[in-house]
Every structure is written in structure tokens, then in C-alpha cells.
Design brief:
- The protein is α/β, with parallel strands linked by helices.
- Strands 7, 8, 9, 10, 11, 14, 15, 16 and 18 form a nine-stranded mixed sheet that branches. The protein has a six-stranded mixed sheet with strand order 1-6-5-2-4-3, sandwiched between helices. A three-stranded mixed sheet has the order 12-13-17.
- Helix content is 36%, strand content 20%.
- It starts with a strand and ends with a helix.
Length: 501
């Protein structure tokens, strides 16, 4: 969907539908709502007076203007109480409105943002409005052949603004948001793709599309190179699959002065059966989503390059399948990781931390200013936080605070879990340096404790996205299935990084 900005009056703008946010606690009509009501002979006052529309959060009502104004429909969108307005609620409101517009099979719609009270908040408001409208309309139909076009998405969304200077701010902000939403779609498409199509080799192919951009370089290490440098933890996980492992290295150079990059590491399990420690059959089909961390890293670099952010980034994605083949690694095996540290295998279903161990060790070669890893790592994190929040653990308070700030701005919320030394005792092995699981108690924490053993002196944060990476039911601007979680969070973090540093 194209995002357009037009200078003019919303009451004079021709559109299939104009979306009008309405606050339930505003006693008198104001701004656009008032103007549209006057031009339509009191239509809005009438529906409010009847009690059919109260303006409660995400309530939608459609009024047909019968030629009284150029717009054919007024879509009243309830925002709830003005005093309770947040950018996250605004995302939800415009997602709900956009999906209602789609249900009417309209090809375009418009809105006015005159409810913004200060120029300082315009950029954030545009971000929320456009993200909600665009992300809420996402549908994965790549493999649909029956009724694929039954509900076609609107093709255009226009923001109408009278003031020339504000119009320019809106246009610039909307262009940036459009870039980010495309990156989220890129990640969602990757995660939604079936495992027989989105193989480690195919993931590397998607990385090549990103590398076509200016200032982006790609290297892909195959199994021969991985064996040569000693990435035996990654290779150990890959042994059970006929699909060869790949280690994807994406480098974006946005700031030639600052040589040290931010390192983003994403888990790339393109399918996880659990290996010899096989998972239950129920919902195993969803384990194609176990590469959501890697997809988020790739999407973030894609957006950073398109936005031309002045920061250097290296993205590292260890990609493999985890299957119970005749050559598969087994409980009781010991793997020697890239770091030289040895790992006793307790469960082959604790494979994500193994491939990340090698990737985190490799990340230190770039002497990064910070390392952030994203992974659908543990079911324990889902039990702890559900699918509403990302589990955050790490070694650097400032880095965690920056991610927390970015999370508040994007609605991709994080919640910190402790990483106390006591938990480290649970991953000590009797026969190797560490074991790859400390058991069920505190499973999300002991997994992070394990990862910490492969971090040098770099500031590091681990984000466990196991809960919010895949939804089983729709949630406003996040349709069920792949969410693309982490892309907007990382992009916001990178934007703020260049401002503060």
C-alpha cells in the first residue's frame, strides 16, 4: 500500500473513505470531526446522540455522506479517552479502521491528523498511524490459489494536511515508516514460508537481496569453511539434516568514521523438530518460525540501509535445520565450540543456544560496541511472559535501558529477567565445560547464562522472542502467524543509537 501526503482540506478531499479518530471523553466536537459534521448536516452529532457510537477504543462506525462532501464515507474510529491516548493505542485504532476499510473492498482511504497538539509529536504520531494501518493489513497468501484475491488490500492511504510546513514533516515521517513496514513484511514473509522452501540456503538467498543495497556486503560461510574455522556447535546441530548449514554475515557501513559496529545476532533454525529429543507432533508445524530472530536481524539491516542510518552494523545469522537423522548429534555427545569451550549435550532440543554460541564468539572478531542477539530460544520464556513481551537479559545496564526505551516507542515490549551468578551453577557439566540445558526451572535464564559464556568483554543483551514471534490469533495490527517482532525494535534502537552516540 502506498502512503501519500496531500496538502489541502479533508472536507474537500475526494476519497472512498475518510478515517476520523474520535475521543469518547471530548464533550464538544472539534477540528476535523466538527468540520465534517457541519458539512454533512450534523451526521456525526446524530450518531453520537443515539448512543450507537461512543468512541470507545477500536469502535468503528461508517457514515455515508450522500454527496454532501467529496469523500463517500466517514469512518469514525473510536480512540477511547483522550487522557489515556498512547501511540500503541493509535496503532491499534488505525489497524482496526484499515481492516474495516478492506472489508468494504475499498481501494483507498484517507485521514487527517489535526488531533496532534504539537509539532514535536507529529513524527511519532505519523509513525503510529502508518504502522497501524499498514501492518494490520498484512496477509500471507504466497501459497494460496483459491480465493486469493477475495479480499484485496487498499492500494493507497493518504494523509491530508492544510499546513505546508507540517505537510513536509508528515511526508518525511511517512516515507521512513513505509521503509520500516516493508522490512517487517520481509521478515514476516520469511518466517511464514514453509520449511521445505525456507532452507538455510534459501535464507542466504534472501540475504543476497539485502546485499544488493548500497553500503551492504554479504559473506556466506558453507560447511567446508565452518569446519575449517571450528564452528562445531553449529555443525553439530546441522548433522541430522540433509540441508547444509550456512553462516550468514551481513555488514552495513553507514558511518565510516566509527569503525566498530553494532553486532546483531539472530537464530536461524529454519526448522526445529527437536532432533533426537524430538518434540511432540502437536504444533510442530509452527517450528518453521524458529528462524524469526535471524529474519528480524535481516529485516533490521534492510531498513537501516534504506534509511541510510549513520551507524555500522554487522548481522550474523547461523542457519540450519535440527532433524533426527542417522548422523544427528545425540544426548551425551560433547561438542567443541568455536571458542574452544566444550559443551555436553543434555537435550538436542536445546539447539538454538548451540548455534548462537558459535555466532556470538564470531561476533567478537568485529570488536563491536554492542552485541544484541534475538532468538526464539525457550518455551520457558513463553511460560513466564506469554506472547505479549520479549524476555531481556544481559550484562550491560546502559544497553538494556536503550532497548527498553526503543521498546516503549515501538510497542515491542521487553521485560528484564535476572541473570544472577546463582543460575550459572545450573549449566556446569561434570564432563565438559558446560551443558546445554540446566533443566526446566528458570529455563529462559539458564539459557541466557549459557550464552553469556561465549561473550567476551563486549556489552551484550539477549532477547528471547519465543512468545511474540508467532501468534495463534489476530491482535489489532499483528495478524496471527508470523509477527516480524524485533525489526521495529532494532530499527528504533539504531536510530536512537546514532542520536545519542
Amino acid at each position: 500500500m502506498r502512503i501519500l501526503t496531500r496538502k489541502g482540506k479533508i472536507t474537500e478531499f475526494k476519497s472512498a473513505a475518510v478515517v476520523v479518530p474520535y475521543f469518547e471523553d471530548v464533550k464538544e466536537l472539534q477540528g476535523t470531526v466538527k468540520l465534517l459534521d457541519e458539512e454533512t448536516g450534523g451526521m456525526i452529532k446524530d450518531i453520537i446522540a443515539t448512543g450507537d457510537f461512543k468512541g470507545t477504543l477500536n469502535q468503528v462506525s461508517v457514515l455515508y455522506t450522500r454527496g454532501l462532501i467529496p469523500a463517500k464515507r466517514i469512518v469514525l474510529a473510536g480512540v477511547g479517552k483522550k487522557s489515556d491516548l498512547t501511540m500503541e493505542k493509535l496503532r491499534c485504532v488505525f489497524a482496526t479502521a484499515a481492516k474495516h476499510v478492506r472489508s468494504l473492498t475499498l481501494k483507498e482511504f484517507s485521514t487527517s491528523l489535526d488531533f496532534i497538539e504539537s509539532k514535536e509529536s507529529i513524527e511519532h504520531t505519523v509513525q503510529a498511524v502508518v504502522e497501524g494501518a499498514v501492518l494490520g493489513l498484512y496477509q500471507y497468501t504466497n501459497y494460496k490459489t483459491v480465493d486469493k484475491d477475495k479480499k484485496g488490500d487498499p492500494k493507497e492511504f493518504t494523509i491530508v494536511e492544510e499546513r505546508e510546513d507540517v505537510c513536509e514533516i508528515i511526508r518525511s515521517a511517512a516515507e521512513s515508516v513505509e521503509i520500516v513496514t516493508k522490512a517487517v513484511f520481509f521478515a514476516r514473509d520469511m518466517v511464514s514460508a514453509p520449511g521445505n522452501e525456507m532452507t538455510p540456503t534459501a535464507m542466504a538467498g534472501e540475504a543476497r537481496k539485502i546485499a544488493a543495497r548500497k553500503n551492504v556486503k554479504l559473506r556466506v560461510l558453507d560447511e567446508r569453511k565452518l569446519r575449517k574455522i571450528g564452528m562445531n556447535a553449529l555443525l553439530g546441530v546441522a548433522k541430522g539434516s540433509a540441508e547444509p548449514a550456512r553462516f550468514i554475515i551481513l555488514e552495513y557501513s553507514g558511518d565510516v568514521k566509527a569503525e566498530r559496529p553494532v553486532a546483531l545476532v539472530g537464530k536461524g533454525l529454519t526448522f526445529d523438530s527437536g532432533g533426537i529429543s524430538i518434540k511432540p507432533a502437536e504444533k510442530m508445524e509452527e517450528m518453521k518460525s524458529d528462524m524469526a530472530g535471524g529474519a528480524a536481524v535481516m529485516g533490521a539491516i534492510m531498513a537501516a540501509a534504506d534509511l541510510r542510518l549513520p551507524v555500522n552494523i554487522v548481522g550474523l545469522i547461523p542457519a540450519t535445520e535440527n532433524l533426527p537423522g542417522g548422523r544427528a548429534y545425540k544426548p551425551g555427545d560433547i561438542l567443541r565450540s568455536l571458542s574452544g569451550k566444550t559443551i555436553e549435550i543434555i537435550s538436542t532440543d536445546a539447539e538454538g543456544r548451540l548455534i548462537l554460541a558459535d555466532a556470538l564468539t564470531y561476533a567478537e572478531r568485529f570488536k563491536p560496541v554492542a552485541i544484541i542477539d534475538l532468538a526464539t530460544l525457550t518455551g520457558a520464556c513463553v511460560i513466564a511472559l506469554g506472547d505479549l513481551a520479549i524476555g531481556m537479559l544481559g550484562t550491560d545496564k546502559e544497553l538494556k535501558n536503550k532497548l527498553r526505551d526503543a521498546a516503549e516507542k515501538t510497542g515491542e515490549r521487553v521485560w528484564e529477567l535476572p541473570l544472577w551468578e546463582d543460575y550459572h551453577e545450573l549449566i556446569k557439566s561434570d564432563v565438559a565445560d558446560f551443558k546445554n540445558t540446566g533443566g526446566r526451572p528458570g529455563g529462559a535464564i539458564t539459557a541466557a547464562a549459557f550464552l553469556s559464556k561465549f561473550i567476551g568483554k563486549s556489552p551484550w543483551v539477549h532477547l528471547d522472542i519465543a512468545g511474540p514471534a508467532w501468534l495463534t490469533k489476530d491482535r489489532s495490527y499483528i495478524p496471527k502467524g508470523a509477527t516480524g517482532i524485533g525489526v521495529r525494535l532494532l530499527v528504533q534502537f539504531l536510530k536512537d543509537w546514532q542520536k545519542k552516540d
